Request: fold
Amino acid sequence: MRSFTRRLCLAAALLSIGMLCSGLAAAQSAALDSRQVEIVASPEVKLLDQEGAGKLFQVGEHLVVVMEGTPEEMGFQHGRLLAKKIHHVIKEGYMAKALWGRGYTPEYVAAQSDRMEKHFPESIKAEIHGIVKGLKAAGVDDLEYADVRIGVTQAEILHFPADKPPQSCSNFAVWGKWTTDGRLLHGRNLDWDVKGGAQEDAVVLVWRPKGGSPFMMPGWAGGVGSVSGMSARGITIGEMTLPSADATFDGLPLFLQMRLVLEKAASLDEAVKMFQEYPRTTGWNFILGDGKVPDGRALETDAKYCNVFTPMDEKEGAATGHWGMEQCVRRTNHPTDLDQLFRLAQAFGSEFGLSVETKEQLTVLVPMLQGQDSFQRYEWMSRRIEEVPGKIDVEQAVKILATGPVYCGATLHSWVFDPTNHAAYLSIAGYNPPVTATDRPFTKIDLTEWFK
Reply:
């Protein structure tokens, strides 16, 4: 047993090193109360361009494209209004660097995208075709359907290489006893890569589908989905990478899982059911909120499993160093229940010279895992929330995202969603020079008019 414990400790240390975010150690000593954040509550709103019912706005420092109509009409508006940025992100910017610049071949990317496209709804295909038509109307003739499609499938493709950047995203949703007036607030950091240039082509996407309900996603030019969002029906969502032994390209890509939930789900239960029924791809954690109730759920998913957690869920228990909270759900980049951690240990233990045969053996590892970055961020968010019952407002939520181990030098975008008031407080990383999002101003995007 002593030898086994030593090997567990070594494995935990290796895991910790592998998932640490650059520059994290210096940020851990920052005090929440002394953290200064800037919130731009009344940004200037300018109409920059219009294509049919579609409009391009400047809201403070952020571009916001509002699309309206059928899928093809919305795609056309998107392509025509954002043609230069779409061309840049695909041909010169983030996608070119992240894929071709790291050794992926067009043949490989096309083959995996083909597998995922089998699960695309026809409406998504029509929207992508619309984007291509809009690009051509704007004079961009060197981009085709397959080029734009990569914007949907890239997340799965980029999660398979050995040299992928560290994932350290964090999400929490609080309501009731924790917030100043009981309304739901949902905070999220997307920690990915601020040196890859994705933020240069960032845009807030707002869809107003014909016969449907409006929704929005902070994303990138040319995208028909993203990794964060909120709907006019009060649904909020954010994701985090989850290590998984069960992964496939034969499923609905992450960007579309999230986009379709925002587009279709009228309630928290409907959103959860959609995730349960999806043909899923690889490991993702999700935090879902519903501002109408208010209520929230945490999901731990991969190609085979979709584990759903309510507030105070017994599965989120002390056996793995976690605990449920009333009127709050939160996640980082690891599973919280014993069954899923045991699956990971069985799948990847051999890489560290381990043979974990029982769940009891795994519990020996928990004290070591609690020193690992993902566990530390989970605990940081939890403790900071517990310290301020009845005091969490937008500023306090931003401070939690911008302080302690949750703070990261590679946060691509950070936001706080306020679905009750149809508002999103958004910060995007700087790109010249690269600056992590939580060191930049959070601008209020008032969605009231666009969510009607």
Observations:
- Residues 2-19 form the longest helix (18 residues).
- Residues 1-30 have pLDDT under 50 and may be disordered.
- The CA atoms of residues 43 and 60 lie 5 Å apart.
